[in-house]
Design brief:
The chain is built from twelve helices and twelve strands. It is an alpha+beta fold. The protein has a five-stranded antiparallel sheet. Helix 4 packs antiparallel against helix 8, helix 10 runs antiparallel to helix 11 and helix 11 runs antiparallel to helix 12. The protein is globular and about 60 Å long. The N and C termini lie far apart (48 Å). Keywords: Oxidoreductase. It comes from Pseudonocardia yuanmonensis. This is Xanthine dehydrogenase family protein subunit M.
């Protein structure tokens, strides 16, 4: 780790006026600094800023410095958010990591984290060795010639499904951006990962009120049961009445370069019977546009099965072949 200057602002204005990289829980930043992937000269510890609070009065408001573990166990949090958080990292890390920091975490692509290797996210124009190298865990959706790295956040998938917005403090006031639009597809500039502009700071996340999102879940498929990133995940909320789907929210993780909203699946579900057969039909369009690489083609059928599994979980209709 290279030397750096550490400051600790106590107001948002002071933080915005300062220079350098913001430190909240540090569960991603410190790792990358140790690897020399990130080498900030100035770090601002923002934990003294008044950016906490969980408000469920009308929808959900989450202060950016709320810890993942506190949000996960709050009774007013939608189940898909709570389950996404509880399946992230370890309990110790959830106690440290902030919600805002989780949304800003960097990809776990091994090429990005290895400074001896080229990586367009870390060193623009150097290349993407994952395209022809070890790519089993990489993305099949939203990729480009320049980058195929997956987005690592679990809770971002749930928040995208629920139309969450992120509030950003600026020196001129604040602005609000839909989380779906906050993340950038790689195209030919994968080093530009989001819409956070220089001098801005995430202050809160806002989830619109959606009463039927009480019927929601988050299903995560991974190589081991704990402390592992998703090979595929699905955040699903269903409004079911008279055995038919009235509305749905569906997003996927572990398969795309950004949290991936499955609007085509949502459209296919609306008006359909709440049966496994209808869920299979709707999930058949989940991987439209996928571009699998040499070792991750399995993610295409896995995405469809994960979506069906989540839908069946919400309707207590166990998918065929899942028993035993």
């Amino acid at each position: 780790m290279q030397s750096f200057e550490l400051t600790a602002p106590t107001t948002v204005d002071d933080a915005l006026a300062g220079a350098g990289t913001y430190l909240a829980g540090g569960t991603t930043l410190v790792d990358l600094m140790k690897l020399d992937v990130l080498t900030p000269r100035h770090v601002q510890d923002i934990n003294a800023l008044p950016l906490r609070g969980i408000d469920t009065t009308d929808g959900l408001r989450l202060g950016a410095l709320e810890r993942m573990s506190d949000v996960a166990r709050h009774p007013g949090v939608y189940p898909m958010i709570s389950r996404a958080l509880l399946q992230s990292a370890s309990q110790q890390l959830r106690n440290m990591a902030s919600i805002g920091g989780n949304l800003m975490q960097r990809t776990r692509c091994t090429y990005f984290r290895d400074v001896s290797m080229p990586c367009n996210r870390r060193d623009p124009g150097s290349g993407c060795p994952a395209r022809s190298g070890a790519n089993r865990t990489h993305a099949v959706l939203g990729t480009s010639e320049a980058c195929v790295a997956t987005h690592p956040s679990d809770v971002a998938v749930a928040l995208v499904a629920l139309d969450a917005r992120v509030t950003l403090a600026t020196s001129a006031g604040s602005r609000t951006v839909p989380l779906l639009d906050f993340y950038r597809l790689p195209h030919d500039t994968p080093h530009v990962e989001n819409d956070l502009r220089p001098g801005e700071l995430i202050t809160e996340m806002v989830v619109p009120r959606l009463d039927w999102a009480a019927n929601s879940t988050y299903v995560k498929v991974r190589d081991r049961q704990s402390y592992e990133f998703a090979l595929c995940s699905a955040a699903v909320a269903l409004d079911v009445r008279d055995a038919h789907v009235v509305d749905a929210r569906v997003a996927a993780g572990g398969v795309a370069t950004v949290p991936w909203r499955l609007t085509a699946v949502e459209q296919a579900l609306r008006g359909a019977p709440a049966t496994e057969e209808a869920f299979q039909d709707a999930a058949s369009v989940a991987a439209e546009g996928a571009a699998p690489l040499s070792a991750n083609g399995f993610k295409v059928p896995l995405l469809r099965r994960t979506v069906v599994r989540a839908l069946c979980e919400l309707t207590e209709d166990e998918p065929s072949g899942s028993r035993g």
